[in-house]
Fold DUF2889 domain-containing protein.
Amino acid sequence: MTSQQHRAVPATATPTRRPGSVRRTTTHDSLRPDGLLAAVTLVARGRDLRTEIDGGHTVLDEARLEVEVDYPRRQVRRISADPAHPRLTELVGVNASSGFRGAVAEALPGERESGSVRFQLLDDLPTALLVSGYAISAGQAPLPAPVPRPRSGLQYPDLCAGWIAEGTLMSRLTETGVVPISEGPLAPEVEPDDPLGWHEHEPLPPHGMRRRRRLDVWRDGEVVRVEGFFRDSHRSGDGVETVVHEYTVHATVDPATRRFVTSEAEIGALPWPECPVAAASAGRLAGLPLTGLRAEVRRNFTGRSTCTHLNDTLRALEDVGALLEHVR
């Protein structure tokens, strides 16, 4: 394991909820209860909460998703959700990485347009699962000689800023045949004193990976402000939690046109020296509509000026349109 990670400063707190605002929080926990090389149980939870003007609160939506994945084959073995959906079982047997989002669109028509928490949990699953492979490399004892392992078909040169052909990661991969990993900074606690600041979720066990998101939406004069926080973290076999990826996106939206006015990404922690270049891609949201943002990012936010995980954070902002309906 290396310590080449881009040294920024991970978040140490969660902002206070603003009167009239709506906050969505989600977590995806990738667990390996039967061993590092066994199946992955992915438990995802989320909630939409409005903070009332008088300080009260209203739960607008909440969901839970549990998926068992044959990790070597990336195949869904079992899936359940609350709230349930009659066609969810159609996802059993599909690839949980490549093509999963298309399978969700076919099995659950209209789910994306709903802007529901359940859809966000499903939509974030493929890359949360992809990142969970970090736990295997981090948790295995060092070998006398590296043993090359095939990398995912979703990972290739110039995929993103971190995977640029001449970059640190690809150079080491070329030299050793092994995808390197980078040890990040300690993960500060971000759960606030406010018990409603985040939805309820279980402590992360050893060798677990957690993807957490927070999306705050509130009115500020004639604009709507948006803050999207994202962190991937890993808990070692010794119980130490470190940050793998972290961004916070700050944006403004014109509520009349429902288009982005401004957008910028703040780096918390990234694994490779080349990764920070991708933060500038968040500025490309300016002028884009909320509707169809997931498809727009997938089509046009590609290559070495972007980041797969920042892209997912930007894609999640499409649901600002649904949350805006509930902002006071």
